[in-house]
Design brief:
GO molecular function, one term (chains A, B): peptidyl-prolyl cis-trans isomerase activity
Largest interface: A-B, 81 and 81 residues
Number of helices of chain A: 4
Organism (chains A, B): Sphingomonas abaci
Structural class of chain A: alpha+beta
EC number (chains A, B): 5.2.1.8
Protein name (chains A, B): Peptidylprolyl isomerase
Strand order of the largest sheet of chain A: 2-3-13-11-12-5-4-14
CATH topology of chain A: Cyclophilin
Distance between the termini of chain A: 35 Å
Strand content of chain A: 15-25%
Shape of chain A: globular
Keywords (chains A, B): Isomerase, Signal
Order of helices and strands of chain A: HEEEHEEEEEEEEEEHEEHE
Number of domains of chain A: 1
Largest sheet of chain A: 8 strands, antiparallel, barrel
Oligomer: homodimer
Radius of gyration of chain A: 19 Å
Amino acid sequence: MSILLLAASLQAASPAAPAPAPAPAPASAAPAAGDALPEDWVTIPDDELLVFTLRGGGTVTVRLAAPYAPVHVANIRRLAAARWWDQGASVYRVQDNYVAQWGDATEKKPLPAGLVTPPPAEYDQPATGAGVAARLARRDPYAEGAGYSRDGWPLAGSGARQWVPHCYAMVGVARDLAPDTGSGAELYTVIGHAPRALDRNIAIVGRVVDGIERLSVLPRGTGELGFYKTEGERLPIVSARLASELPAAERPHFQYRRTDNARFRAWVASRENRAGPFFTVPAGGAEICAALPPVRRAP
Amino acid sequence: MSILLLAASLQAASPAAPAPAPAPAPASAAPAAGDALPEDWVTIPDDELLVFTLRGGGTVTVRLAAPYAPVHVANIRRLAAARWWDQGASVYRVQDNYVAQWGDATEKKPLPAGLVTPPPAEYDQPATGAGVAARLARRDPYAEGAGYSRDGWPLAGSGARQWVPHCYAMVGVARDLAPDTGSGAELYTVIGHAPRALDRNIAIVGRVVDGIERLSVLPRGTGELGFYKTEGERLPIVSARLASELPAAERPHFQYRRTDNARFRAWVASRENRAGPFFTVPAGGAEICAALPPVRRAP
């Protein structure tokens, strides 16, 4: 038994990680039907990337999902422009197999002017919106169907409504009991199995495209629900900036993969029926959070 | 907005954690239809619990799934009896949103006598086996259906076959390319979104019922596939013992919830349609890995 061979086999089975690029195939290998061509990668605009810098210098980069929660995302951009997260904000809750949550643990910091509070409940939207470019073969347990938007987001949908599902690394807006919708100041990301029951009950505003492991490895809070019991346990946030606010030389660049072509549909089919020397039984289906659309750092 | 209220709301939405007991309802509150009665909790036999002690004294306790992979589990019991993991074994791979893996990183340690190598491919079994006591309402993306065994395990099934799905905290046997099946010496547990494409392609031998957060917070390996690059990064395993091998005073005790009654079926329904002041849209369904059967420390 070779662990390294095992590992290489499992790699093919792993869900696409949010950030790392797939290793390019050797020039001698024939491309697979689901491989991306260079023109399949679309650069994410600078004002769609929100970069949180944590104490110690590590960063967590979020692609904002403006088309799916426009008022919440507008609030988030205003909070960043006002430097709201730059003083006193922290990661203050980490619950195993659930979420890491950040913002103002004291709940006392005033919000900047210009925010819409409360925002409307942007938990889903008409399915006539951004458009679904590819679909999964099987029914979704939480929706009539699931697939991929033209702008590189996972989508679930039932009837005439669609929404971005609560997958690993998705970013949502913490809120109180309904009808509260949250402001956008308190955010969380999923660090465990997708808590899809939250779909349509909370606003999804983005996806961590780089640095999720800076949150997923944090000590779990020993307070109720994973809250840190003491201020000293909290991980301070140093700053939050849209990439467009950073000096050009410091801007990170990420790309999503186009979903509206046969190569992407072949990629989806390859996730639904894994092949190769490791797998003996292809599933015939996949769940959307185990087949997230690829995002990579721009080469 | 109250973060604490928010948190309490999200708790109701969180997948059942592997180990913690649900908080008992106040005496004044009427029990919900899905609440367990004291007689619903079944104590797991001592020889079904395998306790790994890590450097520093933390433990990770695995409930072994002997009915679902009998030869692999027999190997694991022999490995523990031979103290195979007590010298030189470690957690040597941690890949974000995927697995933590442990055993002998050198691949050179001889296996004890008496192991069946290779074991048969115990990746699924006839559905006439342990019996399904409760079912989820909707189709599973990886199987025709999913539900709960009489002995407290999640199950997926298609046609005449059933298997334990690759959910968070499930323990599998690392292996090389098919037809290799692994020996049981190299194990992993899921620390991210369920990689269900592995279902029916690898042997599931247990579930971490306590201490998963001791693995899920470990630094992600910076080598390929999350392997630690240096020996110093590995987390040594001090010992692995069946609870039945421990002095009575040191044995941990865990219980699974009975699945073969109306109270459990009501609990399943409550996972499929979340209620309460937080949720505005119940899903009408749930995915098996987001509705794992409850396990708790014996009170």
